[in-house]
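Milestone M4 deliverable, item 7.
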Amino acid sequence: MDVKQLQYFVVSVDMGSFHSAAEALITTQPNVSKIVKSLEDELNMTLLNRTRSGVIITPQGERIYAYAIEVLKNINMINEFKKGQEIETLSISSVPSNTLSFYLSQFYNVNKQEKDMQLDFFETNVQNVIRRVHARKSELGFVYISKRSMSAFRQRIKSKGLEYHELTKAPLYLFVGKNNPLYRKKSVNETTLKDIKLIQYHEKQFSLYNHLGHIKEDVIYNGENMSISYTNSDSFLTQLIKNTEYGCIGSSFVKNQYHELGIKAIPITSCEKSISFGYIRRKKDEISDLAKSLILYFDDINRF
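Output delivered:
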């Protein structure tokens, strides 16, 4: 097995046909087909099903494709190292945060002249951030946690050999569009929220909505008109808030993003400085110089 076999296989999958792959690789269609077939023979697997319109990856091919991508990526890193141009890579997982994304781009601009760097960014919920950092898929994981969920959160990450470092605290907001009856309110309290429709990110244990109500008694407001929908789609969530009567409980870290869409952030009284924003890391591992630089960059609380 050689690198060319993996490269031709990956490009064939990405392009959807041997013909298109040949154009991308600047070679002939028969040559691409021949090299991919030699890989299949060597593995004794059918990786691609051939059709008149192109190629379709098989279940076995899906697994080999994932491995091949990693191999090609690592070979590229080795080649860069050989050239004396090692790329520093920082893998980050985070809950959705427009503010964090903005400052990550600024961090890149500030440092790109001094070092050849790459930021790998994966956006997900708190549970998956924990999983990814624990599995070493991400070096740092950025989360915001309600103070009422903090004890359970710390217990959870401790069992995974992780630790949490707070960067700042932030208030809790109700985000609504012009179709929401609370749109013109300057502030709301928890009682006001008991009868509105909410759309929240799919987050079970560590949802910011769980900050409301009496968590110890496991009682969440249950007004007659209460309706909570869940999604993992940022675009669906923002469009539902913008165009319907649905609202969303969230932190100030998405405030600027929603403001640009005409969505109003209404402070929830008694919830000032109730959300902790920070990062998790593996407790026993030394973090990279690039991760240290990012933490120092974020260490100025005024950035948030």
